[in-house]
Recover the amino acids of this structure.
């Protein structure tokens, strides 16, 4: 592959809309019409018709993410996974066989602050599958046997994931950056936290956090809204509202007062996998879009400053990029790359030089325009499919933005002036007291790491959950 | 919002909801005088378009000493030509709201451009510039060598499947160039010369070795006019040399061990199977889906869920010009030996060899294929990719419209027949990657 920079793909998922090419007389694309209802139990449901292909996508989002894990790291994730492991009316085998037979996709999961279900199926199969989908969200049983199997897979999965530094560096980053804040919880858990969990823990977690109030479902595809409203209203009215729960409180993380480095030792590392970053923004920040414009030329596209210096001009790495990783209540800013052990220092120095340049060099119109054109031009393909649109609708619910984000996207992107760009850089792009996570061979790179701040060394084989 | 007007290909005749049925004749095709073929699909659902260029060159066209050069060449295609110099191609494309990528396999190298449809002419200018006048600057070659070396390193660092599949292919193929990995040997990565690249360019990057697919908010007439203006002046070259190596039939099981520090052993089993164009392809693909698609599939349900011998299992069969392999991949569960998992896999394969699959399983695969097809035609990129793959690997894009009939023709007896024909002990190569290889 020529390039597959993580930051670019993440960027495209969130910063996208549908537009006519600039300067052309082609009709501007607006977010298609959708309906929204709220059931008496508090559940919000979005309906969007799309008839070009006979399929339907449905997404559910529930406030049951890993920030609620407390001392039981990994419980939200296992609970989310086990939604599809059997319900009052359907066994796990029946669910799997039915979805597989019909060629349907099904995924249930938990992330850091939400949990959910995603599915895509042929429109003709809606009467068969919608009741099953309802059951998974409303009546999961969490049998000891199935929970035990998933827990066993999750435990081995923790060690298997560490065979790929790129797969685990984000978990280290969150733990290191957010610390004991609830956003520092390790979503997949640790060996010591998963081991004592049982099915009853999942049942209790479900009862407490899977509440229709605060949750949303989106359905997009080949159906008639009127009929679909009747079907989903009937099905999901069965979801009983539960009393509000006392949740773990989010206390904003302290702004780092000094540069810190977490060095995760991997004795047989061929390369250093690294993050450099600092504080970020939430999705509902009014400057969100302007921040994305700046990040696009800084580290969000192939010819960005970061990739240009680290890859195109120097050949230090296969890829380098940056992105704002946001959650509902907080966020961080991350520069991500990897390089050979021997070029670790050259790569870090070059990345720091690019950060410094962002804060010292005047931004010119051409740089800004390239980022704007790129964002506008690349957005239409991001909302072509039923699953893309269903995903957008639940994210709108979760992060509290609306269709004006889509419909005014081009105008708002173009409204970022050079003066505004400079303000945004000074306000949102970390410059001092940067935080680093390096996964690599400590015996070779620890002396290098020490040049940038206070170093803490941990072993890759140990649990992520330790205090750093 | 403008009314959507996406047509869909008719896939299974029983499908009731297809609003507009696209026929093979709706993919318009023309061939320039220099032999470059174009396939065009008009789609005004979004104001964008794409251009996919498939060059029939991959690691199967290499030899010892220049392994991986097809992939390296893929990188060099972004490093400057006559009009658009180093870094200009990407800069200009991104400035105009577009982006690009590329990938290399054993068989082909594909270049993918995505852009606002209004920029179609610019893309013709860029693509014709690099096809006609690629530059070979020594300093840039060295810098890009560092990038490719980093790509090689990060693949090995992050995936135990890389060293394992490399060892298995090197064992399964003794004479055919599928023997070496697409990324090449590290020592070749460090030693390609500029002259190797120049020779490669002239031989393989000729218009007569390329198929272009364009889908999006463009018109056929516009594409044809621009193709004639920009691409037709590029001279054709003599056809590239044929890959004459044929892998002899395997006449006994081969086994290979690889050491790497991992949680539990990794297992890969490869059976030689025919090229994609072979008539057994569809029955083998049904077998592929029945074995591993979804948690109710034969291998997942038995080995991961019921017996808990594996943490994950998959099967796959890549598109290929020459006979390649049907692969089974599995990771052992805690405290399970690779040989125990291997034996359990053979028990599942033997059940199909002895009793075949069920009619329900066959219908399931047809349903899966229909859903896959819907996903492919939901996007302009899915359309270009699918059209290109059928054109290159199946013997023509029109085969795409025969696919439903081909899958419908497959019977449970066919699946049993191909299982018995190819899943033989003497036809397999088994690779195991684990921490301890000394005991």
């Amino acid at each position: 592959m020529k390039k597959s920079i993580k930051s670019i793909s993440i960027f495209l998922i969130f910063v996208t809309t549908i537009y006519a090419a600039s300067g052309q007389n082609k009709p501007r694309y607006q977010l298609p019409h959708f309906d929204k209802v709220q059931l008496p139990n508090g559940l919000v449901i979005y309906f969007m018709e799309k008839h070009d292909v006979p399929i339907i996508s449905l997404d559910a989002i529930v406030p049951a993410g890993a920030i609620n894990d407390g001392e039981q790291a990994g419980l939200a994730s296992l609970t989310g996974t086990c939604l599809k492991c059997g319900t009052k009316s359907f066994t796990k085998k029946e669910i799997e066989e039915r979805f597989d037979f019909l060629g349907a996709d099904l995924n249930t999961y938990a992330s850091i602050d939400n949990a959910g279900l995603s599915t895509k199926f042929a429109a003709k199969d809606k009467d068969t599958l919608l009741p099953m989908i309802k059951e998974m969200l409303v009546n999961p049983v969490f049998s000891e046997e199935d929970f035990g199997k998933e827990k066993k897979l999750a435990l081995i999965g923790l060690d298997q994931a560490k065979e790929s530094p790129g797969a685990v560096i984000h978990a280290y980053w969150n733990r290191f950056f957010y610390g004991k804040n609830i956003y520092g919880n390790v979503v997949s858990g640790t060996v010591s936290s998963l081991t004592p969990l049982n099915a009853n823990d999942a049942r209790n977690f479900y009862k407490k956090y899977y509440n229709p109030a605060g949750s949303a479902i989106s359905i997009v595809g080949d159906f008639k809204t009127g009929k679909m409203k009747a079907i989903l209203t009937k099905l999901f009215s069965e979801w009983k509202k539960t009393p509000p729960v006392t949740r773990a409180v989010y206390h904003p993380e302290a702004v780092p007062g000094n540069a810190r480095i977490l060095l995760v030792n991997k004795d047989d590392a061929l390369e250093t996998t690294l993050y450099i970053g600092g504080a970020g923004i939430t999705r509902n920040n009014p400057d969100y879009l302007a921040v994305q414009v700046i990040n696009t030329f800084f580290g969000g596209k192939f010819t960005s400053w970061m990739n240009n210096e680290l890859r195109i001009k120097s050949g230090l790495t296969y890829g380098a990029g940056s992105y704002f990783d946001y959650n509902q209540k907080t966020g961080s800013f991350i520069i991500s790359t990897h390089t050979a052990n021997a070029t670790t220092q050259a790569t870090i120095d070059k990345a720091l030089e690019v950060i410094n340049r962002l804060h010292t060099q005047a931004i010119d119109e051409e740089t800004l325009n390239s980022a704007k054109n790129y964002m506008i031009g690349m957005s239409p393909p991001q909302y072509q499919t039923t699953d893309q649109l269903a995903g957008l609708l639940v994210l709108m619910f979760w992060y509290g933005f609306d269709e004006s984000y889509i419909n005014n996207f081009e105008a708002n992107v173009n409204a970022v002036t050079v003066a505004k760009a400079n303000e945004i850089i000074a306000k949102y792009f970390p410059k001092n007291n940067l935080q680093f996570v390096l996964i690599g061979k400590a015996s070779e790179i620890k002396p290098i790491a020490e040049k940038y701040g206070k170093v803490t060394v941990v072993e890759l084989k140990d649990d992520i959950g330790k205090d750093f | 919002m403008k009314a959507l007007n996406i047509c869909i290909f008719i896939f299974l005749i029983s499908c009731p909801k297809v609003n507009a049925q696209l026929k093979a004749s709706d993919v318009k095709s023309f061939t320039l005088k220099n032999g470059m073929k174009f396939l065009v699909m008009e789609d005004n659902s979004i104001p964008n378009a794409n251009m996919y260029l498939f060059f029939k060159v991959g690691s199967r066209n290499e030899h010892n000493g220049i392994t991986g050069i097809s992939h390296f060449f893929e990188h060099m295609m972004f490093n400057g030509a006559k009009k658009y110099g180093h870094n200009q191609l990407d800069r200009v494309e991104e400035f105009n709201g577009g982006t690009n990528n590329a990938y290399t396999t054993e068989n082909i190298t594909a270049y993918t451009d995505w852009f606002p449809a209004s920029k179609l002419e610019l893309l013709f200018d860029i693509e014709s510039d690099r096809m006609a006048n690629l530059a070979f600057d020594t300093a840039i070659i060295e810098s890009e060598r560092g990038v490719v070396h980093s790509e090689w390193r990060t693949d090995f660092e992050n995936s135990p499947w890389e060293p394992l599949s490399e060892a298995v292919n090197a064992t399964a193929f003794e004479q055919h160039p599928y023997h070496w990995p697409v990324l090449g040997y590290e020592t070749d990565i460090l030693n390609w010369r500029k002259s190797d690249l120049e020779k490669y360019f002239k031989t393989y990057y000729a218009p007569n070795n390329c198929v272009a697919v364009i889908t999006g908010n463009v018109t056929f007439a516009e594409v044809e006019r621009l193709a004639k203006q920009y691409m037709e002046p590029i001279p054709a070259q003599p056809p590239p040399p044929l890959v004459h190596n044929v892998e002899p039939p395997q006449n006994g099981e081969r086994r290979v061990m690889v050491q790497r520090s991992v949680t539990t052993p990794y297992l890969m089993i490869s059976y030689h199977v025919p090229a994609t164009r072979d008539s057994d392809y569809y029955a083998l693909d049904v077998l592929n889906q029945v074995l591993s698609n979804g948690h109710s599939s034969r291998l997942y349900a038995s080995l991961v869920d019921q017996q808990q011998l594996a943490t994950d299992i998959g099967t796959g069969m890549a598109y290929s010009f020459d006979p390649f392999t049907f692969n089974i991949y599995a990771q052992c569960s805690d405290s399970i030996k690779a040989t125990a998992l291997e034996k359990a896999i053979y028990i599942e394969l033997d059940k199909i060899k002895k009793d075949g699959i069920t009619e329900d399983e066959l219908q399931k695969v047809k349903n899966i294929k229909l859903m896959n097809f819907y996903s492919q035609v939901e996007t302009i990129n899915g359309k270009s990719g699918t059209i290109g793959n059928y054109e290159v690997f199946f013997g023509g894009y029109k085969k795409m419209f025969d696919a439903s009939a081909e899958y419908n023709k497959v019977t449970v007896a066919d699946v049993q027949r191909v299982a018995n024909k190819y899943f033989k002990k003497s036809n397999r190569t088994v690779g195991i990657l684990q921490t301890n290889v000394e005991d």
The mean pLDDT of chain B is 93. Chain B touches chain A through 88 residues (CB under 8 Å). Chain B is about 40% helix and 20% strand. Residues 127 and 320 of chain B are 26 Å apart (CA to CA).
